[in-house]
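Open question from group meeting: does this chain pack into something compact, or does most of it stay loose? Before anyone orders reagents, we agreed to write out a predicted structure and look at it together. Recording both the input and the output here so the notebook holds the full record.
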Amino acid sequence: MALLLLFVLLISLVAADEDAFIGVNIGTDLSDMPHPTQVVALLKAQQIRHVRLFNAEPAMLIALANTGIRVTVSIPNELVLGVGQSNSTAANWVSRNIVAHYPATNITTIAVGSEVLTTLPNAARVLVNALKFIHSALLASNLDRQIKISTPLSSSIILDSFPPSQAFFNRSWNPVMVPMLNFFQSTGSFLMLNIYPYYDYMRSNGVIPLDYALFKPLPPNKEAVDANTLLHYSNVFDAMVDAAYFAMAYLNFTNIPVMVTESGWPSKGGSNEPDATVDNANTYNSNLIRHVLNKTGTPKHPGIAVSTYIYELYNEDMKSGPISEKNWGLFDANGTPIYILHLTGSGLVLANDTTNQTYCAAKDGADQKMLQAALDWACGPGKVDCSPLLQGKDCYEPDNVAAHATYAFDTYYHQMGKAPGTCDFNGVAAITTTDPSHGSCIFLGSGVKNGSFVNGTAPSMNSSITSSAACYAFTSSIMIIKVLIWSAFFL
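Structure tokens returned:
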């Protein structure tokens, strides 16, 4: 049955490789896993342009061919030991799983294992060798510049994560971390990190405020302040990213970017998981996506966004563990959205909330000088992309302050999630239900065509890597230390 989706997720801000993006993880622990062609149909309908696979399933790689979707392929944990012990094994893996599909399938990254240091410590001693052997195989195939190599790490390897300026990697892993970071630096790669504010919040026993974990706006007096840098943190995600940057700097690595390979929030949980709700999952993922695509950056690196993969595309009903483990997905197996993300946009981030379309427009008769001042602010400190207002662009006409201000005001209003107070501009703007789009000038939330998806059943493809959502283990002593540290800032 064809399902008319009210949900359009996102696409990258621009096509350039170096720009930050939002992607999705595709797990396959479903009892009714869609066929790879159906998965790709959903990705295309939702304009999802970056995906991370937990293995190198040939059928999925074939289905992704000629779509332009950028793919991170993973070497499962159970293969890391073999790859790290044998150059020829690594070369054979690259030949079968990369060379055989590239460039038709746009493979951009290879993730070697997942959280190997914390979930498969016996393979840790060969992890750097595995990275180097895979790189040598890519080099032999002249693909070393097109495809980056890294390995996703659990954020639990970062100790003393708050304040971020005091963060450092678990020193017992320094014999692995130092050569690994050297490899990332020499190959122009990035540190992959899995960040789950949901777990930090749950394990803090109430010390970390829920709003702080969910990216909800906080008044300045509620933000956490790093006493060493005086940087203000309004969410767990940014604090963890900056902790990673400081931890790398502690080892004298200052030019390696961070990529978040997993982050999300469960939409359902058991009786002991009261905050695993649809509303919280929607709030977290919507705010995270907006945070990345708006290039907000972190307090340590403002304006430098961190590419992030949402965990995950589908609810995985075959996952073991608590109820929340089965409910991290954006969709069910039929391609039906679990919730409608609170996102709006035009051209870049497409509107998906069609149930309450409102716009922000300049008030009739507003003072022209005040309008101009508000327009200048929106296009400057407000970080609105006002390039469509340039002469010859789609929104240049009509060439008057009120029309241009309406475009800038509405863009800002939607970028801020239509939050209260974001359509005022010193009294010269007001919320309206009238779509101000005209001609080829399409405003955020306007004229979006929803994709449709016909789903069916297919043989299951079992995921080969256990996500950190299932194996995010902390020792009790580390957790107690973290709670005490956070208590100093929130209690």
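Observations to bring back to the group:
The longest strand covers residues 70-75.
The radius of gyration is 23 Å.
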